């Protein structure tokens, strides 16, 4: 009898520990069983994910940064054609993540989508390398036909890379965040840190690519310079697959786009139907997973559960905030365009060295790399003690700070341009290019705040069935910002160059008013910040940040 009571008492003591050993978010291990906390997820899984991210950034930026040089020197394209081709390819790389996110959330899951996407990207990089090897493999062709063959092979490879990265990019972020249980306070803190270290890893890969990878391409040829990224990404694929047993997996919940369309169609069909006074009468199933999979005996195009309606409402509430973030990238896009043009009109000598204007972007990258550990290890704990929030400050406050930094960066650029133009008109010694450093530093601070904040925000606010799709919104905002930047520059040039005037942004900046353009962008940035603040104050959070 005593022995039986002792056994029951032991079971009662052990029961909470057994329950606590499993995750609370419904995640599974690779065998399809409930995930055990001490065997799966956490930083043990994220290390391999961040390693894959590092390899992907090394490979992608290793091709992207010097692609214009390859197109102009090897394929003999004009500057305009090369710039257009690179811009189109980059925009495609930022748009394909939406398609990859839909596939991941609807059918394959994040892990399988990443593996397939990575394989396609590796094959595309090998194809790009093959384009540089063609003249050595086929020696009898004419120069014109060889250049055409190289272009075909190269662009086939580039767009294979774009579609491969479409499956890899959004899933890496959301799959890494899936490794932390939102129901565990300690893991919730780690999830916030994960987004910081994700951007840190990305910038580290970018720094190495701008120096090491470009140097290899310039000194050892394009065949090797384009093959190395393929080998690096293959290493990243190996890291991703090798740690498969340590991952936590989320089940797919059906096409998110279909679920949104079902709500819209059902709402139109029942436009004149008044909602009941008792909200408990609204249609919902006790098992949310079943309703998401569509297992209930109902016509989903005529009757949607409350969960689906709330998902659509969440997306609609996020759209104004997303638009403000997109304009933020319109401002930061100047770092790769008008900032460089401004630097070309300045004194690029620093001591006995000549500094390429585009290399000033190193200040932006290094700022982000240095500040992320300080933000994560010093600022967040201090802010947590003051605010009581797990992340120190809310995601919306963090994004707002980034938007403010972008406006300040435009103002700093305007002040530098005012000084540069005044010195140039006075015939004095040209202004040193190092005067641009503060504006690049401000852009780097903005990336730390806005880029990391918006990734965390879109993931944390996304409905369970749309985690990857909402994460892809971050990449689409970058593409939208780049397109809008091109539109703004074109509109300003057209509006200010009428009547024979040189305009604000002529080829010779000494004849224009680039400072006015920067002041205009600073003013629009302030208006964007006001609009964002207004939307953020009215935003109804899905859960506390």
Automatic annotation (TrEMBL):
Its main location: membrane. It is a multi-pass membrane protein. It is found in: Membrane. Belongs to the major facilitator superfamily. Proton-dependent oligopeptide transporter (POT/PTR) (TC 2.A.17) family. This is Major facilitator superfamily (MFS) profile domain-containing protein. The chain crosses the membrane at residues 49-68, 88-108, 115-134, 154-175, 195-216, 222-243, 314-335, 355-375, 396-417, 437-459, 471-497, 517-539. It comes from the Eukaryota. It comes from Oryza meridionalis. GO terms for cellular component: membrane. One of its GO terms (molecular function) is transmembrane transporter activity. InterPro entries: MFS_trans_sf, POT_fam. It holds the Pfam family PTR2. Keywords: Membrane, Transmembrane, Transmembrane helix.
């Amino acid at each position: 009898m005593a022995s039986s009571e002792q056994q029951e008492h032991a079971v009662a003591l052990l029961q909470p520990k057994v329950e606590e050993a499993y995750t609370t978010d419904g995640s599974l291990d690779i065998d399809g069983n409930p995930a055990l906390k001490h065997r799966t997820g956490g930083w043990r899984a994220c290390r391999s994910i961040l390693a894959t991210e590092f390899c992907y950034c090394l490979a992608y930026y290793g091709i992207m940064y010097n692609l214009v040089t390859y197109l102009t020197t090897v394929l003999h394209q004009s500057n305009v054609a090369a710039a257009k081709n690179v811009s189109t390819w980059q925009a495609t790389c930022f748009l394909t993540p939406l398609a990859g996110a839909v596939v991941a959330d609807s059918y394959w899951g994040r892990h399988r989508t990443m593996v397939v996407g990575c394989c396609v990207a590796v094959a595309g990089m090998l194809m790009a390398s093959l384009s540089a090897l063609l003249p050595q493999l086929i020696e009898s062709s004419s120069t014109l036909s060889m250049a055409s063959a190289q272009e075909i092979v190269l662009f086939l490879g580039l767009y294979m890379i774009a579609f491969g990265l479409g499956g890899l990019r959004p899933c890496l972020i959301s799959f890494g965040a899936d490794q932390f249980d939102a129901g565990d306070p300690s893991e919730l803190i780690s999830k916030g840190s994960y987004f910081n270290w994700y951007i840190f890893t990305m910038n580290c890969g970018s720094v190495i690519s701008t120096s090491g990878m470009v140097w290899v391409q310039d000194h050892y040829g394009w065949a090797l310079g384009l093959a190395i990224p393929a080998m690096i990404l293959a290493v990243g694929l190996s890291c991703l697959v090798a740690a498969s047993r340590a991952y936590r997996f989320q089940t797919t919940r059906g096409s998110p786009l279909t679920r949104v369309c079902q709500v819209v169609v059902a709402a139109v069909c029942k436009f004149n139907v008044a909602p009941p006074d008792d909200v408990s009468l609204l249609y919902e199933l006790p098992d949310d997973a079943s309703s998401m999979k569509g297992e209930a005996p109902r016509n989903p195009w005529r009757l949607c559960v409350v969960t689906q309606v709330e998902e659509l409402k969440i997306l609609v509430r996020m759209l104004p905030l997303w638009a403000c973030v997109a304009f933020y990238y319109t401002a930061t896009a100047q770092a790769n365009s008008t900032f460089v043009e401004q630097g070309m009109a300045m004194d690029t000598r620093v001591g006995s060295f000549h500094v390429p204007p585009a290399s000033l972007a190193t200040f932006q990258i290094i700022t982000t790399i240095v500040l992320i550990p300080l933000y994560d290890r010093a600022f967040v704990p201090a802010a947590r003690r003051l605010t009581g929030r797990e992340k120190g400050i809310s995601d919306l406050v963090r994004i707002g700070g980034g938007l403010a930094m972008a406006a300040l960066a435009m103002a700093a650029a305007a002040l530098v341009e005012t000084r540069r133009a005044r010195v140039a008109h006075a015939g004095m010694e040209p202004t040193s290019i190092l005067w641009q450093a503060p504006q690049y530093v401000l852009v780097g601070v903005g990336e730390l705040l806005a880029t990391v904040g918006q990734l965390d925000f879109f993931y944390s606010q996304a409905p369970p069935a749309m985690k990857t799709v909402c994460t892809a919104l971050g990449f689409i905002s970058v593409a939208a910002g780049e397109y809008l930047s091109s539109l703004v520059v074109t509109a300003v040039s057209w509006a200010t160059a009428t009547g024979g005037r040189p305009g604000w942004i002529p080829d010779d900046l000494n004849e224009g008013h680039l400072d006015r353009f920067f002041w205009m962008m600073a003013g629009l940035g302030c208006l964007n910040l006001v609009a964002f603040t207004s939307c953020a104050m009215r935003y109804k959070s899905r859960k506390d940040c």
